[in-house]
């Protein structure tokens, strides 16, 4: 399996190479040169597999020769052995048509664990072969940071520097990052938005003063391996409904477009997905892009769904490249224009290519609260506000009701207890396994929203490549 950049001029890499590289050297994102595809018989043969075995089967074509099948299965069993539910990503029924896919049974109570528990093990495996050191630099709107830190804390050969927007993540999200006291973990609270933090991370990948000294790696969903692991739970859910013999639709609350792009990948691999609903909050750049072709930034509005308070959705570039003709030079020019003007229009090919599988929906705060109320009143389920954005979209869908509609439940409701309590009157409690979170001591560094300050902080503390 060979990987190419969306911008066309970075060297092609194998799976090990893209896992450690993260962002491509030309500023693009890596994708497989071509999509592997399973036959209907191959998909049918996956029914009933335990999650780790299913994961190894689905991911094997992407891994290629970088791991043996036995190595991949062992890593999957280790990663998913830490989850609190034996099914790893269980389905919960809300009514005759609506379902939740619970993705929050990992150690940090968010869907990011599904990918990052595996990614941490992949880093350790590949770095042990190279006897090198990796400096992970990431930005988080809340859940990526805690999941990534949990996955790599104390691991050999890895330093992690995680940026979060100061005061713009929930107390639980912040504490899950800042109470991890491992020598290789560095938390940075920057003044500004998630988009500001993400822009600094991307700039660091292009900064030769840093890349010449350190092996800079990524845990954000710009890292292909993270997206690859998220493809698995689409297969898991669809198989429960009878795939490949029955279609299924998914509603996906999203900000950075990684989780829903994984659904696109599953569809390219042969999974019978009827529709993917891109569910956004009022920071609705993706909704505008998919409905009118207008991909232009505005001011980030803080909401009760902070993980979606994003204006620049990194993984959208992957979709535009894939459905728009896979022309790297044209994609590079389009993104250069966007970086300069903070706006662009999708091409006709991009709009038409996305229209077949994707729909979109925008939920404001009232709609989000009503969806939380609906889940509690009609099914006795407490859901977090991000999941509620997805459920609001699912309930509004006019698809054939015979097609199951699965909303991705992306976080445990206790991570956003204040918003849940306001909507439902019920204050969700943290699971016992993280119940002492608020008794632990925090440690993080506050920095201005200034690239030089962040770069210097990382350079002073990271381990050189060697």
From TrEMBL:
Annotated ranges, domain Tryptophan synthase beta chain-like PALP: 87-322
One example GO MF annotation: threonine synthase activity
Enzyme Commission number: 4.2.3.1
Cofactor: pyridoxal 5'-phosphate
Keyword Amino-acid biosynthesis set for record: yes
UniProt keyword list: Amino-acid biosynthesis, Lyase, Pyridoxal phosphate, Threonine biosynthesis
The name this protein goes by in its record: Threonine synthase
Source organism of this protein record: Altererythrobacter arenosus
Lineage: Bacteria, Pseudomonadati, Pseudomonadota, Alphaproteobacteria, Sphingomonadales
Gene name of the record: thrC
């Amino acid at each position: 399996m060979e990987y190419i950049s969306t911008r066309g001029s970075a060297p092609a890499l194998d799976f090990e190479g893209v896992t450690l590289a993260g962002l491509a050297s030309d500023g693009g994102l890596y994708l497989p040169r071509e999509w592997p595809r399973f036959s209907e018989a191959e998909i049918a043969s996956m029914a009933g597999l335990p999650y780790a075995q299913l994961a190894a089967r689905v991911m094997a074509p992407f891994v290629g020769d970088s791991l043996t099948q036995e190595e991949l299965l062992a890593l999957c069993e280790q990663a998913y052995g830490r989850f609190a539910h034996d099914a790893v990503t269980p389905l919960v029924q809300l009514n005759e048509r609506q379902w939740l896919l619970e993705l929050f049974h990992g150690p940090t109570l968010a869907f990011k664990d599904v990918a990052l528990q595996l990614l941490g093990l992949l880093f350790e495996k590949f770095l042990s072969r190279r006897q090198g050191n990796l400096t992970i630099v990431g930005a988080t709107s809340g859940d990526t940071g805690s999941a990534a830190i949990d996955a790599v804390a104390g691991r050999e050969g890895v330093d992690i520097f995680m940026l979060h927007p100061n005061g713009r993540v929930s107390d639980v999200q912040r504490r899950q990052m800042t109470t991890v006291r491992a020598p290789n973990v560095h938390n940075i609270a920057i003044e500004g938005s998630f988009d500001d933090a993400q822009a600094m991370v991307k700039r660091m990948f292009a900064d030769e003063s840093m890349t010449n000294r350190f092996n800079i790696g990524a845990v954000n969903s710009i890292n292909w391996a993270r997206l690859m692991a998220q493809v698995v739970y689409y297969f898991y859910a669809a198989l429960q409904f009878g795939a490949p013999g029955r279609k299924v639709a998914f509603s996906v609350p999203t900000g950075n477009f990684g989780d829903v792009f994984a659904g696109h990948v599953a569809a390219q691999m042969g999974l019978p997905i009827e529709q993917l609903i891109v569910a956004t909050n009022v920071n609705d750049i993706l909704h505008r892009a998919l409905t009118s072709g207008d991909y232009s930034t505005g001011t980030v509005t803080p909401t009760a769904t902070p993980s979606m308070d994003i204006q620049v959705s990194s993984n959208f570039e992957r979709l535009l490249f894939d459905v728009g003709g896979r022309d790297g030079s044209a994609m590079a020019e389009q993104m250069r224009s966007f970086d300069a003007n903070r706006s662009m229009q999708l091409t006709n090919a991009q709009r038409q290519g996305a229209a077949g599988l994707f729909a979109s929906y925008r939920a404001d705060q009232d709609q989000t609260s009503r969806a939380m109320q609906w889940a509690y009143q009609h099914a006795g389920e407490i859901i977090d506000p991000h999941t509620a954005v997805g459920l609001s979209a699912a309930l509004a869908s006019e698809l054939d009701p015979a097609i199951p509609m699965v909303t991705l439940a992306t976080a445990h409701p206790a991570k956003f207890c204040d918003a849940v309590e306001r909507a439902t009157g019920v204050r969700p409690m943290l699971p016992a396994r993280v119940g002492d979170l608020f008794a632990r001591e925090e440690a993080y560094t506050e920095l201005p929203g200034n690239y030089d300050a962040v770069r210097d902080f990382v350079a002073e503390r990271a381990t050189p490549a060697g």
